[in-house]
Amino acid sequence: MIITISGKPGSGKSTVARLLAKRLGYRHYSVGDFMRQIAKEKKISLLELSNIAEQGIETDSRLDDMQIKLKGQDNFVLDSRLGWHFLPNSLKIFLEVDDKTAAKRIYRDMRKEEKENMTLEDTEKSIRRRIKSEKERYKEYYGLNPYDKRHYDLVMDTNRQAPEKVVRIILNFLEGQLPHHP
After folding, report:
1. CA quadruple 63, 18, 174, 162: dihedral sign
2. Section 157-176 average pLDDT
C-alpha cells in the first residue's frame, strides 16, 4: 500500500507520515526534507526556494522526478504536497490546520534554515505567502490546486489533535480500506 499525506504547512504532514510509516513498518519519504536539502545546498530559505521555483520549473521538476521514481515501490508513506498527483493509486490524505496553529508549530520548531520564521507573526505571513506561491505555481505547471479537498480520500483537521491521535484515526480508516481475509 502507498499512502500520500498532503496538507498545509505546519499541519503535521512530516510528523504524522513518519509516525504512520513506523507503525505500519513502511518506509517514509518526505519531499519537505528534500526541499530543505535543496535550500540548504543553495544556502537560501524555503521561502527563497519557493520564490526561485516561481521563476521556472527546475526545482519542482527535481521534486517531481523523486516522487515519480517511487512508483515502482510499495509499502511506503510519502508526505508531499503533490504526492497524490504523482502517485494516483495511493491512499490520499490531507491534513488541515489554521494559519495561527501552523505558525505556532513551525515557529516552535525554530528551523535555523528558515530565516523568514524569526517571529510568530513573520511565520504566519510566511505560511500565507508559501500557500499563495504554491497555488499559483501548481495551477500554472499542473493545472491543479493541492489544497482542493476533493482530491483526497481522507481529510483531517489537526488543529487540536496530537500526531499520535491523527495516526490512530488514519489506522482506523485504513482498516476499513483493506480487504479482510478470513
Report:
1. negative
2. 93
Could you write out the DSSP letters of every residue in 40-98? HHHT--HHHHHHHHHH-SHHHHHHHHHHHGGGG--SEEEE-SSHHHHSTTSEEEEEE--
pTM to 2 decimals? 0.84
Domain extent at residue 30: 2-169
User: Does 131 map to a domain?
Assistant: yes
* Segment 68-103, tens digit of pLDDT: 988 989 999 999 999 999 999 999 999 999 999 998
Task: State residue 168 phi and psi, 5-degree precision.
Answer: -60, -40
CATH label of the domain that carries residue 56: 3.40.50.300
Q: Is 30 helix (H, G, I), strand (E, B) or coil?
A: strand
Q: Which three cell numbers stand for residue 27?
A: 518506509
Q: Strand, coil or helix: what is 27?
A: strand
How many folded domains does the chain comprise? 1
